[in-house]
Amino acid sequence: MMLVPEDLETPAVVVDAEQAERNLARMAAASSHAGVALRPHAKTHKCLPIARRQLFHGAVGLTVATLAEAELFASDGCPSVFIAYPLWAGSSDRGTRLRALRQRTGLRVGVDSLAAAVRLADAVPGLTVLIEVDSGQHRSGVLPDEAGELAASCLELGLNVAGAFTHPGHAYVSAADVPRAAEDERAALAEAGAALAEYLDGPPELSGGSSPTASSGASGVPGASGAPGAPGLAAPLTEVRPGTYVFGDRQQMQLSGLDVDDVALVVAARVVSVPRPDEAVLDAGSKALSSDRPAWLAGHGLILEAPKATIAPLSEEHAVVRGLTTALCVGDLVRVIPNHVCTVVNLTSELIVVSDGKVADRWPVSARR
Fold it and tell me: Taking the domains of the chain in order of start, what are their residue ranges?
């Protein structure tokens, strides 16, 4: 696991450059072997230097969650950006921005309703869209067998329908749910592809997205069970959109089988109080670690120097550590693997990049909200 300089100002979000590079290369190789395009979700890192490395490793483009993220990465020369979100293009300003964005990159947008499609068609005639289908998370998306009907409406409006996409977010319920969610993802996209076939001139693009389900179907990814070219990933998916794989986090250690040495990001924190021998207080509260915690994880992060301890409770500037088996002292520096890396990155303005225990660079988190 990465070495962190002792004199860091804390709390700090620290990235091991070499490990992040290994993670990027591993997913790129696994996707290539499986015969699917890789379009990483940039909401995890929101960072231009990492986006450039993903494209260097062969990504066909990037996935984003917001128009602002799309504008940032397009301005840096990203050749294709997919806003994987049911974007509402109602305001004239948003329409202007979308039209300008399509001039700079190969823009595609998710859609799951006729109302949103009408607005998109008015704002950007001929825009490329993908139909979002619900593969089991029950958040957004139409039922797979309804994809054809919505696609027909989009085509009548003058939109270009490229295919369908889904997010199998129910993979995050527990590690035991990942294989089922991966199968749900493939089944939903297969059904949607069949529904789209009668309306499109060629084979539809079928895009799936999550780090756990991508890992479930491709070798070369920690925790993967398939072989290169495994049918689980290659059929029927034509594209995958993993995000957290670049850094890893405590959730992915459970869901994707990551080893602690595969994790490329920690929150460096300092012990500021020791109220009792088996307790300590860190200077990294919810504003550094985020309060995101799935029900199946205890506490708000894994302390590498005290892996059996629990971070709870958490307040804005304080993290109370309980259950210490080895005492920590005021002033000690600790490394915390966060539960959910995406929310942690969104809370910081920069990533401290380390190499061999020394600060090598500082990467702005340019797309944070």
Answer: 17-249, 258-364
State which amino acid sits at residue 127.
Answer: L
Instruction: Choose among 266, 265, 274: nearest CA to 331.
Output: 274
Rounded CA-CA distance 71/68 in Å is: 5
Which token pair is 129?
């869209």
Three-class DSSP category at 292? coil
Cβ neighbours for 26, distance < 8 A, ≥ 6 positions apart:
220, 221, 222, 245
| Packing angle of the helix pair 92-104, 67-75 (nearest 10 deg) | 30
CA-CA-CA-CA dihedral for 186, 38, 101, 75, to nearest 10: 150
Q: What is the DSSP letter of 121?
A: H
| Amino acid code (one letter) for 252 | Q
Q: Which of 163, 244, 253 is nearest to 210 (CA)?
A: 244
Q: How far apart are CA 92 and CA 365, in angstroms?
A: 28
What the block records as the tokens of 132 is 């979002």
**Residue ranges of the chain whose pLDDT lies below 70:** 215-235
Listed in order, strand segments (DSSP E) in the chain are 12-16, 37-38, 62-64, 80-86, 106-111, 128-132, 160-166, 205-208, 239-240, 265-273, 279-282, 302-303, 310-314, 319-322, 333-337, 350-355, 358-364
> Can you give the pLDDT at residue 235?
61
Encode pLDDT of 268-285 as tens digits.
999 999 999 999 999 999
Nearest residue to 292 (alpha-carbon basis) of 265, 270, 311, 269 = 311
Instruction: Write out pLDDT tens, residues 14-40.
Output: 999 999 999 999 999 999 999 999 999
Topology of domain 17-249, per CATH? TIM Barrel (3.20.20)
Q: Check: CB of residue 48 under 8 Å from CB of residue 289.
A: no
pLDDT of residue 209: 80
Domain 258-364 has CATH 2.40.37.20: yes
Of 337, 315, 327, nearest to 271 by C-alpha is 327
